[in-house]
Design goal:
With about 240 residues, the protein is of the alpha+beta class. Helix content is about 20%, strand content about 45%. The protein has a six-stranded antiparallel β-sheet, with no helix packed on it. A six-stranded antiparallel β-sheet has the order 11-12-9-16-19-14. The chain is built from five helices and 19 strands. The chain has one domain: Mitochondrial biogenesis AIM24 (Double-stranded beta-helix, 4-Layer Sandwich). About 30% of the residues are buried.
Length: about 240
């Protein structure tokens, strides 16, 4: 299997599969492919595991793309402006990611839901009580919003991260939530009530953009229902 990440800020990954090679994706991730690519949709790992993944932000069903001929081409596109980052998963490199980070992986990679040990960290941290965990062996391609910043935390070293900017981290990194202190910080600091705390050792990948932040920026420019009615009324009067 070969692959190439293209597209700049609106990325996609072109993959070339040999006969019988298979990759798995979430529903809707495939952009285009050769006619020699066979697609099948199923609940990987059974219904219960699929329901758990759904709570982590993944789709209920996964799609398996299998090449029936050598040199079969298939392309997967990101759903949001940002970065596609490659990771190699093995017994020494397992990862935990935000919901919707998963784009495509070899079928030898396991995608499961993982429950945060600290209930409040999951419930209030902004990324949900259930995250995605990647184990097994093989190539993983993750979707990261905006640009990616990689940090290598030493043992005991911690960073505080604004909700939603945590993209992915090593499975051995400790994940928790810390409340923002101070009345003025809470109501005027613009950071919300909680910050995510990540403690090493291990690597962390942060994203510079979040879908929520972009949506909030666009809201003032969205037409209201009243303005739409006025435009329609004006047209009919003419």
């Amino acid at each position: 299997m070969r692959y190439e990440i293209v597209g700049g800020s609106f990325p996609a990954v072109n993959m070339i599969l040999d006969r019988d090679e298979t990759v798995i994706t979430q529903s809707g991730a495939m952009a285009w492919c050769d006619s020699s690519i066979d697609m099948s949709t199923n609940a990987e790992g059974g219904l219960l595991k699929s329901i758990g993944r759904m709570f982590s932000g993944a789709s209920l069903m996964f799609v398996r793309h299998t090449a029936t001929e050598d040199e079969s081409k298939i392309t997967f596109s990101a759903s949001f402006p940002g970065t596609i980052k490659e990771f190699v998963v093995d017994e020494d490199h397992e990862y935990i990611a935000q919901k919707s980070a998963f784009l495509v992986a070899q079928d030898s990679v396991n995608i499961d839901a993982t429950i945060n040990k600290n209930f409040w960290a999951g419930l209030l941290g902004g990324e949900g009580f259930v995250l995605q965990k990647f184990t097994g062996n093989g190539l993983l391609l993750a979707e990261i919003d905006g640009s990616v910043v990689e940090l290598d935390l030493k043992a005991g070293e911690s960073i505080k991260v604004e909700t939603g900017h945590v993209a992915l981290f090593d499975a051995n990194v400790q994940y928790d939530v810390e409340s923002v202190r101070g009345f003025k910080n809470i109501f005027f600091g613009g950071q919300g009530l909680f910050l995510t705390t990540l403690t090493g050792p291990g690597k962390v990948w942060l994203q510079t953009l979040t879908a929520q932040d972009m949506a909030q920026k666009l809201i003032p420019f969205m037409p209201s229902s009243s303005s739409s009615i006025n435009v329609s009324s004006g047209s009919s009067n003419d």
